[in-house]
Amino acid sequence: MRILKEYIFEGRVSKEDKNSSDYKYVLFKVPKKAGILQISYNYSKGDNVLDIGVFDSKGSFRGWSGSNKSELFISENAATPGYLHGKIYSGSWKIILGLYKISQEGCRYTIKVRIGGINGELQKRKIIRPFKQEYAETPKKRWFKGDLHVHTNHSDGAKSIRDLVNEAMTIGLNFVALTDHNTISQNLHVEGYESSDFLLIPAEEVTTYYGHANVWGNRKWIDFRRRSMEDFQELIDEVHSQGLLFSINHPEDMDFPDGYWRFREVSRFDCIEVWHGPWSIYDYRSLIWWDSLLQKGKKIVAVGGSDFHGTDLPRLGNPTTWVYSDMLSVNNILNAIRRGHVFISRYVNGPQIYLYADADGDGRVDSICGDEVHLSRGDKLTIYAEVKKAKDLEFKLISRGEAVKIEKVNSSYYRVAYRTQVENDGYFRAEVIRHNSQESDNAEISEVLALTNPIYVRVKNQKNERKKK
Ligand SMILES: [Zn+2]
Ligand SMILES: [Zn+2]
Questions:
Q1: Rounded to whole angstroms, how far apart are CA atoms 378 and 454?
Q2: Of 57, 88, 120, the domain-final residue
Q3: How far is the CA of 188 from the centre of ligand 1 (A)?
């Protein structure tokens, strides 16, 4: 490779820098006829974590790797996973440093940039086609099983997309969302895997220092540089303007400092990841938060996600999100999620709860989870649940924060009915749980093995007309 230009940047960021901004930019000039950039960096370790990404001279996002990679390249036809290949424009490019954790002593860094000519050897790599928007169709409406939160080597996951797809298809998942942190290069590779039984969903885990959120179906990069409550509200509205869904991830996860969701007052978000990886006390708290919002009359969809990173294999599909859709396409799956036609199970073949309602008393079900039933005060309502693969577990039907029915499930196929007369707006949702033994680490919580979204009850002629969420 013919080197056109080389730079070495040395600098320091302090705690004060972090207080005034989460990001620092290092600018460098790219000469004409450049074909490849190679960037490497290192910094004083200890308590520091310095993330890195790149913007080109047109101001466009060209990739992000968090603190996961110390070297990267971008060329016309190829790039390090996490980065977007494409023209190496001349002019002023920017390295973005994310000041994730900065110690009291500050953090010293060194960045090396090498700019090669147009005939750099990496140019010969195969050209990656942009993805199509066509997906296979299936004839019948059915429940598709997916994992909405998975990382690949385009961020800090260990697996390539191809290996991930193999694992996912082997265990029987129908769809997987590629929620790599803050980048979209993985989404250039979603095509070619689709079949009537499998789909990759382009996605991004918007990973801020104040909480994480999944956006599914995005073609465009979603800017993660957000800090204030207003920033987050703007982000949610931006996501909606693109017709996409915004899902708050692991809102109660206190295991890492940027993981839990700070801005509880934001509104108009679509989903909450109430179940993040193997069931834990954090999920239990997320469930309580979600239920408290339902009690306030909000309609927010509960989803699950494994946050699989490639090495912890049994975790893929734990939990699995089941979505009722007539077609395995990005739009159809997202629309079904938007409507709340979703339940979550611990495994791809784990316990299942199919929740139905008969709102007109004709003995036939007319609604499933996520649907609204519109009734008048005093009308009769029957909620049915079909419970599969939950023998010896406990079934719970919950309305306004309270269990209205609890039964021990005594067979692998179980049906339960609950009849009531409606008085007010409300909701019914179901769980299958196992009580933890007194000796276990999580003795105070029960372990959830399946949970549904609610059937919402809306009472007509009620004085307090229900508010839009
Ligand atoms: Zn996360
Ligand atoms: Zn994640």
A1: 20
A2: 120
A3: 21
**In a shared domain, residues 187 and 316:** yes
- Among 120, 144, 170, the domain-final residue is 120
* pLDDT tens-digit readout, 354-365: 999 998 778 788
Please write the tens of the pLDDT for every residue from 135-183: 333 456 899 999 999 999 999 999 999 999 999 999 999 999 999 999 9
Q: How far is the CA of 357 from the centre of ligand 2 (A)?
A: 35
Give the ligand at the shortest distance from the Cα of 250: 1
- How many angstroms does the Cα of residue 106 sit away from the middle of ligand 1? 26
Question: Is residue 142 included in any domain, yes or no?
Answer: yes
Question: Could you tell me the distance, in angstroms and rounded to a whole number, from the CA of residue 181 to the centre of ligand 2?
Answer: 7
Q: How far is the CA of 250 from the centre of ligand 1 (A)?
A: 7
